[in-house]
Amino acid sequence: MIGSLGEIVFEVSTEQIFTFNDLNIQRSAKYLSHAIHGRKELLEFTGFAPVTMSMNIVLNAALGINPLEELEGLQEIFNNHEAVLFILNGIPQGDNLWVIESMNEKHDDFHKIGIPQYIEVSLSLKEYVEVNPESNSQEISQEEFENDYNGIGNW
Known about the structure:
Radius of gyration: 22 Å
CATH class: Mainly Beta
Distance between the termini: 45 Å
CATH topology: Elongation Factor Tu (Ef-tu), domain 3
Helix content: 10-25%
Number of strands: 11
Strand order of the largest sheet: 3-2-1-8-9
Shape: elongated
Low-confidence stretches: none
Mean pLDDT: 87
């Protein structure tokens, strides 16, 4: 097994080939700019943006899979806005679950009765950060408040 996205299993075997390609991972940080008269502005690190990933999946009947059935599984995750694990080589990717933010389908090579034999799916995934209801992340310590108020923060 190569990995999985929720219940969708990516694998290569003698019976079938079901995998993805062009996996792109984007990590970014967020900064605020503070203008200072006559000087370059200062940047303040405010946190990290959720990680995003994109990948292309080829659903090809010639490779031993049912393209419509596998597409249905991906659509189910998307339509139910499920947050799922993304696992590669037995290792969960990232610290959180993932949601399918967008799906683009290209249907091709139709059977004589109109069933697509080849579907290319482009997925955009976004890290799903769960809120811990037991912690109140709005509260900060007095020291953190004083440091930010006095300009000592993350500048």
